[in-house]
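Table S2 (continued). Query chain:
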Amino acid sequence: MNSPSLQSHRGSGRRGTPPGGQGPADQPPRAAGADQPPRAALLARIADLAPAVRRAFEVRPDPSERALWQSLTVHQLEALAALDAGSHTMGELCSRLDISESAGTALCDRLVARHMVERRHDAEDRRVVRLALSGQARAMVERYRELKRHRLTELLSVLDTDDLATLVRIYDTVLPGAEDGRTA
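Corresponding output:
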């Protein structure tokens, strides 16, 4: 038998359920046993939903933009995102991306060749070379952010302000340790 907390959300007509169909939240969790504790059932359900949540939050660029973005590797996209926060030395970027300096040099060489990254001498010490986004890459990152904001607005429009505040509270609790493998 399902726990009351799971039952109250399934088939309850909560916002976000597609008309005439069952939304992901309306499907029962995988049963690990009849006596499975509610917390374990909820955690299993969250694990089951994780791929759908990730896909739902993905940015969907138009075909002309998709061609440019799909031609970049995941590591190149991660480097562009890191450099969007400001210029970095090769060592700083490699540390942030958790890659070797030789891999970072090859990665940046490819981005420089594509006019996505520029190498600049440091204003205070000309021996230091800093990596920075080119104007083209900065425009691409800004366009990505714009598409991301639009996608989130569209996806989360089914939530009222209280639900959004709860979601932010959950993210603020869970995410601080997620990047380095810690738990909150």
